[in-house]
Every structure is written in C-alpha cells, then in structure tokens.
Amino acid sequence: MIPLSVLDLSLITAGGSPAQAFRNSADLARHAETLGFRRYWLAEHHAMPGIASAATPVVIGHIAAATKIIRVGSGGIMLPNHAPLTVAEAFGTLDALFPGRIDLGLGRAPGSDQATMRALRRDPQSADRFPNDVVELLRYLGPPQPDQHVIAIPGANSRVPVWLLGSSLFSAHLAALLGLPFAFASHFAPDQMEDAIALYRTQFKPSHSLEAPHVMLTVNIIAAEDDATATLLKTSLDQYFVALRHGRPTPFPPPQDNLIWSPAEQATLTHTLRYTFTGGPQTLAGKLTPFLNQHTPDELMIATPIFNHEARKRSLEIAMTCLERR
Questions:
Q1: What is the pLDDT, as a whole number, of residue 324?
Q2: How many CB atoms are closer than 10 A to CB 187?
Q3: Residue extents of the structural domains in the chain
Q4: Could you report the per-residue pLDDT of 195-222, keeping only the tens digit for each?
Q5: Residue 295: pLDDT above 80?
Q6: How high is the pLDDT of residue 159?
C-alpha cells in the first residue's frame, strides 16, 4: 500500500477560533496516527482568516506533543520569509524535542499577498535567492565544517529531512539537482504536475540524503458515507476557493445547497480543483486508483478541507480504507 500522509491548514471555520482550530488539528493528528498515516504536515500562510498555522514551527510542536509516533512537519515553511539560520534553529529545536519525527518541507512562495509580504519585511528579491538559501540551510543542519563560522545550535548535526515543495518546474529541478525528496501541490495547482514529476525523476542526482527520486503528490479528498453527502461537504471548499480567488479570503464556510457559480467561476473550480476526489467509498476508490496508477507517486498526501470536524475525521477513515483495499 502506498504511504499516506495528511496536510492540515488548521482551518478556522466560520464561527470558530484559532484556539478551536488548534484543538481540532491535535485531535485530527491523533486520529491520523491511529489510522496509520505516516506524516502530518502544516502549512505557512499569513493574514488568512481561515488558516491558523501562520506560526508553523509552533503548531508543529503542538501537534508533535499531542502525538507519539507520526512524523510531523511543514508543508511548508516559506523559506524566503525567513533567514535560513532561524529555520535551522527552529527545526533543530523541534528535532531535539521530538527526535526522529520532524520533517522540514520548504516552499518558495510568500504564503501571503503583497501587503503582507511587506509586513513580514520580506525582500522582494528573496525568492531569487531560494536555491542559495536552501543550500545554506542544509549546511546549518549538517555537520559543522572546519571553515564554518556560524553554527546553528540547535540544528547542527540534526539532519532533519528536508523536502522541496512546489507547484511548478522550478522546485522540481532544484530538488533533482540537490537530491532531495519532492512534493507537488496538485491539490490546488495541477497544471504542471506531470511535467514536474517527469523532470524531477529524469534529472535526479543521488545525494547523502536520498539515493533515488521520491515523489509525494498532494490531493484533496472529501469522502463520506455516500456521494450526495460528500458532494455537499465539498461546497465548503468551493465557496472558500472562489472567495480567495476574488481577493476576499474568509473563514472556512459551512456547506451550502444549491450554490450557483458564474461560468468563469465554475470553470476555475473544475480546472484548479481537478485533483479533488469526492464521493462515497466505492466512488472514491474508482477515482483514486486510476490517478495512482497513472502517476505512480511514492507517497500520497491528503488534504481534507471539510467544515465539520467529525466529518473530516471520517473522511480520513474512508480514504485509508479505500487505499488499503487497492
């Protein structure tokens, strides 16, 4: 069976709060651990009314403390927002507290809009330094060299596994060049998925971190006892995504019957969320199997953007059962 993992945005639902989002995330992580999921990752987004995981290392510590064996990490840390040394220290600290359980996924995007980028004191050119920053960060996490004047403490010698995340060819190429595992954000940016996978696999160079290419694909799964219920649950994601695309991010909304979208909105939802798998157990299995057979990922990461927390937990159960039987 393909290894399964969870991507959590620590959703702030309409009428909810960050505190409730963190309680739900801890509960969902414990549930995922019980079900046998391999990893539980959280994402860095800023100034988003529906996402509580802005201080990602802090939330990772919260989740790791609430669980026992599941790996916990970032999907991802937006490296251009941070100095590589501070990231090395944060994840070195997490590794010291939870040895052998921490992953560090790195992204190149800001995780925010232009105004928030300025509030973060982000240099507009920082994305251009991403390859150099990744190499610098890897150096801080490895064994100190004789000519190395700055050492991450904690961090040095931790060898926290580093992943590159992407939604384009850029990070695929860099991950291949550096010999790092690669995760593609097909759950919201599917257009270049196939090209990125092919480029990564063909250009991969073995490293001390990884001997062969390792691809993880992220998809949305919204599963329920029957197709009609799952379809209704998906309306929360549709509403959230359309609001985001219109520049009006909101808390994650409850499901709603009889939504009517403009042709342009419907086309955007159909195209951009085409790797959102929705349905009851039989329907879900029928959709996932061709996807996995065609793209052969080494791991599958599941986002479960569902308003009701218990329904989100049930969705993970159904997804795991469907893939166990595959």
A1: 82
A2: 24
A3: 217-326
A4: 999 999 999 999 998 999 999 999 999 9
A5: yes
A6: 84
pTM for the whole structure: 0.95
- At 213 the pLDDT is 98
Q: What are phi and psi of 72, to 5 degrees?
A: -125, 135
What's the pLDDT score for residue 216?
98
Amino acid at 209: S
Q: Can you give the three-state secondary structure of the chain, one letter per residue?
A: CCCEEEEECCECECCCCHHHHHHHHHHHHHHHHHHCCCEEEECCCCCCCCECCCCHHHHHHHHHHHCCCCEEEEEEEEHHHCCHHHHHHHHHHHHHHCCCCEEEEEECCCCCCHHHHHHCCCCCCHHHHHHHHHHHHHHHHCCCCCCCCCCCCCCCCCCCCEEEEECCHHHHHHHHHHCCCEEECCCCCCCCHHHHHHHHHHHCCCCCCCCCCCEEEEEEEEECCCHHHHHHHHHHHHHHHHHHHCCCCCCECCCCCCCCCCHHHHHHHHHHCCCEEEECHHHHHHHHHHHHHHHCCCEEEEECCCCCHHHHHHHHHHHHHHHHCC
Q: In the predicted model, is pLDDT for residue 124 greater than 80? A: no
